[in-house]
Every structure is written in C-alpha cells, then in structure tokens.
Amino acid sequence: MNVRSQVNPMQLEDYFDFLAADDIRLKDTRIGIETIESLSAASMMTRSTPP
After folding, report:
1. Is the sign of the CA dihedral 3, 27, 19, 38 positive or negative?
2. How many CB atoms are closer than 10 A to CB 26?
3. Closest alpha carbon to 17 in 3, 5, 31
4. Nearest to 37, CA basis, from 28, 29, 21, 26
5. In a domain, 9, yes or no
6. Which of 3, 7, 23, 51 falls 20 to 30 Å from 45 in CA-CA distance?
7. pTM higher than 0.70 for the full model?
C-alpha cells in the first residue's frame, strides 16, 4: 500500500477558525484571512519577473 494513501487529506478546519461568514482567522490567533490575503498580494506585487 502507498504511504500517501494512508495520510488523511488536509482539512481547512485544521488551520482556520470559522467564527462567522465574514470572520475567518488563523487557528488560535487573531489574524484574519484578509490580512494574509493582503500580505500575499503585496508580496506578489514586489516580486520581480524574469527577463
């Protein structure tokens, strides 16, 4: 049997707390998903593109 088939799939609930429809946070923190999204977008904008 393949080892990968024995591993449980990743569940969003393992990493996020769903407090309300518009309030999703990193598990056990006060960091909202909108903060992660804005940091990710800023990071993507500052990356240089290959020539």
Report:
1. negative
2. 14
3. 31
4. 26
5. yes
6. 23
7. no
Write out the residue range of the structural domain in which residue 29 sits.
Answer: 3-38
> Max Cα separation, the chain?
45
pLDDT tens digits, 1-51:
555 567 788 899 999 999 999 999 999 999 999 999 998 888 888 776 665
Task: State both tokens at 41.
Answer: 């977008």
The owner of tokens 């593109």 is 49
Say what the pLDDT of residue 49 is: 60
Rounded CA-CA distance 31/38 in Å is: 12
Which parts of the chain fold into alpha helices (H)?
A: 3-6, 33-46
